[in-house]
UniProtKB/TrEMBL annotation:
PANTHER family hit by this protein: EPIMERASE-RELATED
NAD-dependent epimerase/dehydratase domain: residues covered: 11-278
Keyword annotations from UniProtKB, A to Z: NAD
Protein name: Nucleoside-diphosphate-sugar epimerase
InterPro entries: Epimerase_deHydtase, NAD(P)-bd_dom_sf
Residue spans crossing the bilayer: none
Species name: Eubacterium aggregans
Length: 361
């Protein structure tokens, strides 16, 4: 990153102890120095908090190394309006990256409340804080970048998924909240001229990832001698995207807010954009499991003679799941000259190695 245009920027990153958030903080510390980063995360126990703490320790070590930048961590929820307002009033961010969200399709079926709290109320608080950052003629937030999801495409039959496609048929509450984020951001961009960019992430994976994701859950179960269930009888395809590719995409987008322009009605043309970030190469789940097991053996997480066939079960589709995710990334390539490129084997190899070290196998 070109030192954020060669002057010190202040960046607020929500969900900073999360999978994508923590990797983005590390990347900015290493490549955007000098930069002031303020992270907020509620460190909830949706999954093993030890992983979140491990990520924060990695950030602290990195921040100690790059001392012309600063790193501040605040433990708290973006659903707390007073806390969010105080964060903005204290730090006056130039760029805001909202990655805090309750993730996961299946969890939204059993625990809907947390999705409304984090993904809707929390995001509303961020939008309001961005709006008021311009009060009194202040320079305010230059760019709001926020996480959307490939889930917004629902059961769309046309592939690859393009941001031009209609996305009015979500099949999970999680997807509905992410589509709502895009609509809310559009309204605030129109009303208050807030430059905002939504990023639809496609099945992000990698070291220190989320344990609720298939590759991580499969590894846990295989190690415990349990049976892994492969949904839709193995006929699912996923556009697996390595976390480093996601972070590189986010970093490039952060530096290029949509332009502010005035329309014929004298009101702002919304400085608003949405992009897909995916690998553009969907992989069949059975092929994915095959590569994962090879890399788990290579990293000595599992023994060479492990009986995988005896621990695999093909089952029907889960409610809220979709048969395929497949990103059309042509707009990202056109506007930012970037396309994810990490191969699945390379990415799963990095995960298997991290898993072995983290769990001391």
């Amino acid at each position: 990153m070109n030192q954020m245009e060669n002057n010190t920027k202040t960046v607020i990153i929500t969900g900073a102890a999360g999978f994508i958030g923590s990797n983005l903080v590390l990347e900015l510390l290493k490549t955007a120095s000098p930069v002031q980063i303020v992270g907020i995360d509620n460190l909830n126990d949706y999954y093993d908090v030890r992983i979140k703490k491990w990520r924060l320790e990695a950030i602290a070590a990195c921040a100690a190394e790059y001392q012309d930048s600063s790193w501040t961590f605040v433990k708290g929820s973006i659903a707390n309006r007073a806390l969010v307002d105080d964060l903005f009033d204290t730090h006056h961010p130039d760029i805001v990256v909202n990655l805090a969200a309750q993730a996961g399709v299946r969890y939204s079926i059993t625990n809907p409340d947390v999705y409304i709290e984090s993904n809707l109320i929390g995001f509303y608080n961020i939008l309001e804080a961005c709006r008021h950052s311009y009060d009194g003629g202040a320079k305010g937030v230059e760019h709001l970048v926020y996480a959307s999801s490939s889930s917004v495409y629902g059961a769309n039959k046309k592939v690859p998924y393009s941001t031009e496609d209609k996305v009015d048929n979500p099949i999970s509450l999680y997807a509905a909240t992410k589509k709502s984020n895009e609509l809310m951001a559009h309204a605030y961009s129109k009303l208050y001229n807030i430059p905002s960019t939504g990023l639809r992430f496609f099945t992000v994976y990698g070291p220190a990832g989320r344990p609720d994701m298939a590759y991580f859950g499969f590894t846990n179960k295989l190690l415990a001698g349990e049976t892994i269930e492969i949904f839709n009888y193995g006929n699912c395809k996923r556009d697996f995207t390595f976390v480093d590719d996601i972070v590189e995409g986010v970093k490039r987008v952060m530096q290029s807010p949509p332009a502010k322009e005035t329309g014929e009605d004298g009101l702002p043309i919304p400085p608003y954009a949405v992009y897909n970030i995916g690998n553009n190469q969907p992989v069949n789940l059975l092929d994915f499991v095959d590569i994962l097991q090879q890399e788990l053996i290579r990293a000595e997480v599992l023994p060479a003679d492990y009986d995988f066939e005896g621990h695999k079960k093909l089952v029907a589709m889960q409610p809220g799941d979709v048969p395929i995710t497949y990103a059309d990334t042509s707009a990202l390539e056109r506007d930012f000259g970037f396309k994810p490129s990490t191969s699945l084997r390379e990415g799963l190899r990095a995960f298997a190695q991290w898993y072995k070290e983290f769990y001391k196998i």
